């Protein structure tokens, strides 16, 4: 199985393509707020996944050293999700709220798709 750092690096590559698609959609379609919302949500979703990767490293090192187990940062990730939604609510002329929430879930969708592709390749 791939480790979390490899998954995160693959996700970063996929998300750069998503950001490019959002930029093109923002520039060439009348749905600018939807594409900005998806981009904002994907940015905060990627930040949340980065926090998870970093905290999992600390968790693994704490377990291997026999130290007290630290938190996995759920409150920080929840807070950044709330921040993304707060930005979308505060600036509705720029960011579409529903697309921002969908964008928050995109890194996790990429995670599931990556796991499926990996399992199909190695069967």
From TrEMBL:
Q: State the source organism's domain of life.
A: Bacteria
Where in or outside the cell is it found?
Answer: Cell membrane
Query: Upper taxonomic classification of the species?
Result: Bacteria, Bacillati, Bacillota, Bacilli, Bacillales
Its record classes its membrane topology as: Multi-pass membrane protein
Q: Which keywords describe this protein according to UniProt?
A: Cell membrane, Membrane, Transmembrane, Transmembrane helix
- UniProt key word Nucleotide-binding: no
Question: A Pfam family for this UniProt protein?
Answer: ATP-synt_I
State the protein's name: ATP synthase subunit I
């Amino acid at each position: 199985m791939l480790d979390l750092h490899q998954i995160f690096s693959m996700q970063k590559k996929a998300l750069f393509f998503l950001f490019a698609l959002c930029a093109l959609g923002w520039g060439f379609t009348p749905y600018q707020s939807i594409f900005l919302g998806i981009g904002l949500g994907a940015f905060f979703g990627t930040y949340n996944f980065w926090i998870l990767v970093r905290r999992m490293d600390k968790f693994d090192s704490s377990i291997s050293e026999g130290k007290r187990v630290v938190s996995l940062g759920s409150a920080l990730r929840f807070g950044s999700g709330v921040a993304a939604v707060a930005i979308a609510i505060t600036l509705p002329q720029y960011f579409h709220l529903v697309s921002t929430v969908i964008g928050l879930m995109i890194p996790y969708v990429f995670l599931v798709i990556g796991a499926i592709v990996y399992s199909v390749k190695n069967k």
